[in-house]
């Protein structure tokens, strides 16, 4: 079983996996996740846009958008290849180490959880305030 097939059960009974976490926390599309998987599977040698296009059979523009998003998120690194003649420079894309990737995602999830906790506490306080106001209104009527 691939790690992308493994699921965990939420309190609601819904099951989610790594793909769901990546799409929820980072807004990654299915293509973005496929590109990340492809780059990660290439290891330290990395992958070029041409290689990813050929492997995933997707448009160059789609792959380039995904790579830019993944670089911006810090999931992969873009390295310039030595010039092979005239023309545009070529790049190779390399995934951060699995440990770095896991630590980044975990850290981001912890930040999100902290923010959500604060929001829920504010919600509970606001709700308690509304209930108190209603109770006081009913007592004076």
Overall description:
With 141 residues, the chain is mainly alpha-helical. It folds into 2 domains: 96 residues, Arc Repressor Mutant, subunit A; 45 residues. Helices cover 61% and strands 11% of the residues. It contains 5 helices and 4 strands. A two-stranded antiparallel sheet has the order 1-2. Strands 3-4 form a two-stranded antiparallel sheet. Strand 1 and strand 2 form a beta hairpin. Helix 2 crosses helix 4. The chain starts with 6 loop residues before the first strand and ends with a helix. The model has no long low-confidence stretch (mean pLDDT 89).
List unreliable stretches of 5+ residues.
none
Here the CATH topology of the largest domain equals Arc Repressor Mutant, subunit A
Going across the biggest sheet, name each strand in turn: 1-2
Largest sheet: 2 strands, antiparallel
Question: Radius of gyration in whole Å, from Cα?
Answer: 22 Å
List the helices and strands and how they pair.
Blueprint: E1 7-9, E2 15-17, H1 18-26, H2 30-41, H3 49-56, H4 60-73, E3 76-80, E4 91-95, H5 98-140
Antiparallel strand pairs: 1-2, 3-4
Helix pairs in contact: 2-4, 3-4
């Amino acid at each position: 079983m691939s790690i992308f097939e493994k699921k965990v059960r939420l309190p609601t009974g819904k099951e989610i996996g790594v793909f769901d976490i990546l799409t929820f926390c980072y807004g990654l599309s299915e293509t973005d996740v496929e590109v990340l998987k492809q780059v990660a599977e290439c290891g330290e040698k990395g992958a070029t846009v041409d290689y990813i296009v050929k492997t995933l059979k997707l448009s160059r523009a789609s792959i380039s958008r995904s790579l830019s998003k993944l670089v911006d998120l810090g999931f992969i690194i873009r390295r310039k290849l030595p010039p092979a003649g005239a023309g545009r420079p070529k790049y190779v894309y390399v995934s951060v180490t699995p440990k770095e990737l896991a630590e980044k995602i975990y850290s981001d999830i912890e930040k999100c959880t902290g923010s959500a906790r604060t929001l829920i506490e504010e919600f509970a306080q606001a709700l308690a305030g509304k209930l108190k106001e209603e109770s006081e209104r009913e007592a004076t009527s």
